[in-house]
Design goal:
Blueprint (H helix, E strand, L loop, with lengths): L3 H8 L3 H8 L7 H13 L6 H8 L4 E7 L8 H16 L3 E7 L5 H10 L5 E4 L7 H9 L2 E5 L10 E4 L1 H13 L6 E4 L6 H16 L9 E2 L5 H11 L9 E4 L2 H13 L9 E6 L15 E4 L6 H12 L8 E4 L2 E3 L11
Length: 343
């Protein structure tokens, strides 16, 4: 395997010049930088992380720590996240390390071990909790990180997020504007920050419309097709008031809702109106539902580049104000909503 010394000897440069060129130091000319990088590629040079750490103070390696669960290999959102982040870091010449925790393993000792090895420059945090211990731990440890989401009101760390509270408000108020007052929300796992703020947006829209908040109409859990189906069956069983409309946290839930309503002999939107948030996963198109699904849309793939930008900026010590970003979403009205009088 080629070394820095091999590249330096071939180009008649010093090892220091080669190292600084590969690490994009400003005191190296553009011509030299290009020569060195082209030769490194031609010689199939791969930097040793320990050596890079000694020279630059950085390993060029970042990590994502996730808990193990039974269906992790079939989780389309997880696979998209890993693939997207890995591609973005690779494009910046960095290595992306995925660490899957053992089942029921405490999270903070995992970060402590990874930090103790001094091989990672920073971390991406996904699925933040309302009171996420990882954030305080990494802040106190002085380790760079970026959060896919926001936690709390005093946000003094890098993040990329969308306005989850507002999109839930928009979806719910679209239904109240059509006369619906008994509206269900199929949400994610309780305690996750985006789940909490989406419920807040849903409740705010109900209050603005003068509609009652009925606890049995808010259901949470894994946002998959199976839960969409079982939640819907539950909503239309028993003596509690039944919804005339349903807000779904994602399109996978909505697909389960459609299946359950069809099994119950109920039609969308004549009997029940349905809306959802759309992460635009490649395998599931809201426009292909029948009838086509009304959504707020923010493609998940648009998260990876800003997350990587923010983490690399944090590692480089850029100002915090440049490392906090909000993505946009669009509202797309299709054919899955009818006036409540028709329901």
């Amino acid at each position: 395997m080629a070394t820095l010394k091999d590249i330096a000897r071939t180009l008649d440069l010093s090892i220091t010049q080669v190292s600084r060129a590969l690490n994009d130091h400003s005191d190296v000319s553009e011509e030299t930088r290009l020569r060195v990088k082209e030769m490194a590629q031609a010689m199939n040079y791969h930097p040793n992380a320990s050596a890079r750490k000694l020279v630059s103070g950085r390993s060029g390696m970042v990590g994502l720590v996730v808990p193990q669960h039974r269906n992790i290999g079939q989780d389309g959102i997880f696979i998209e996240a890993v693939a997207g982040l890995s591609a973005q870091f690779s494009g910046r010449g960095m290595q992306f390390v995925l660490h899957i925790m053992a089942e029921h393993e405490p999270v903070l000792p995992v970060y402590q071990r990874l930090i103790g090895k001094a091989m990672l420059d920073g971390f991406v945090l996904i699925d933040p909790l309302d009171h996420d211990p990882r954030i305080d731990f990494l802040k106190k440890a002085g380790i760079a990180f970026v959060v896919h989401g926001r936690v709390g009101k005093a946000i003094d760390y890098p993040y990329f997020d969308i306005e989850n509270e507002q999109l839930a408000y928009d979806l719910t108020s679209h239904l109240t504007a059509r006369g619906h007052r008994c509206i269900a929300l199929l949400n994610g796992i309780s305690g996750r920050s985006y789940v909490t703020v989406r419920k807040q947006g849903y409740c705010r829209a109900l209050r603005d419309a003068g509609a009652e908040e009925l606890p049995h109409l808010h259901l949470g859990g894994e946002m998959d097709e199976a839960n969409g189906l079982t939640h819907t069956i539950r909503l239309f069983s028993g003596d509690a008031p039944r919804p005339t409309a349903i807000v779904c946290g994602n399109v996978r839930l909505a697909r389960g809702v459609y299946q359950a309503l069809a099994a119950l002999g109920l039609r969308v939107p004549t009997d029940v109106s349905v809306v959802a948030h759309d992460d635009e996963l490649p395998s599931l198109r809201a426009s292909a539902f029948f009838p086509a699904l009304t959504v707020t849309k923010a493609p998940l793939r648009d998260s990876w580049e800003p997350l990587v930008d923010c983490l690399t900026g944090a590692i480089e010590g850029k100002p915090l104000a440049t490392l906090q970003r909000i993505g946009s979403y669009t509202f797309i009205e299709r054919n899955s909503v009818a006036d409540a009088a028709m329901a």
